[in-house]
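Q: What changes when zinc ion is included in the input?
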Amino acid sequence: MRYRFLRFPEGKVKAITFSYDDGVRDDLVLADIINKYGIKCTFNHTNTEHMTKDEVIENIISKGHEIAVHGAEHRAEGLQRPVEAIEDVLSCRKKLESEFDMIIRGMAYPDSGIRNLLPGVTYENIKSYLKNLDIVYARTLGGDNNLFRLPEDWYAWTPTAHHANPELGNYIDDFLNIDVSKLYIAGRFPRLFYLWGHSYEFERNNNWELLEDICSKLSGKDDIWYATNMEIYEYVNAYNSLIYSADGLRIYNPTLYTVWFETDGTLYSVKSGETICLKNN
Ligand SMILES: [Zn+2]
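A: The predicted holo structure follows.
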């Protein structure tokens, strides 16, 4: 069996996504800046409103960014009884869906999230009720994901780094310098750079130029797909939904996406509804 690696849309090897929390007014400034650079962000909202509906639609949603759940009252899942946490997630999801007239299934854990668990609270149970609430991914924190891996567990999606991480400059260089075609074949998996933070930190520290600097380094690359958290989830999910013959040479795409992959150094795409056959060489 030959190795087969996911490639992002148009065959791109790398993707970049941002995640900014709490739905504060400084998000409008952040959105303005990242829009200039073509970078996409997921904005995680609580039920506390800091912007009007029209401001969010005009400056964030219509620019291709994602709105996601961050808990109605910003309370850690690990520090609540399940019934309380379920209420917190569900009421946030329902509020955002009715306010913005859309389906919302993404989430970032608020506060300490799943990093501290009360006695009797388990991660497996949190994951189970989030699935029942139709949440399909949840961003967690703790440690740097500087191998740029896609998540193995979508309910414990660990970002690359916070924007103030002292290693960030090195991580950006490492990420941009990866050339998978020069790597040993088993290492040619796709790479994701995932930045997180709060827009109010730039305002508070008077360092918006840090964001400009990060964006100017990351933007405008032909081999990078700039996407929201949900776009990445949905694309990877489509890739994982491909159907194969036993020998792996016949591949059917039952999804609505054109799906890309690379095998033996050759790039393939399978359109929605299409079946392709790879040569047996
Ligand atoms: Zn938060």
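Observations recorded in class: The chain has a mean pLDDT of 97.
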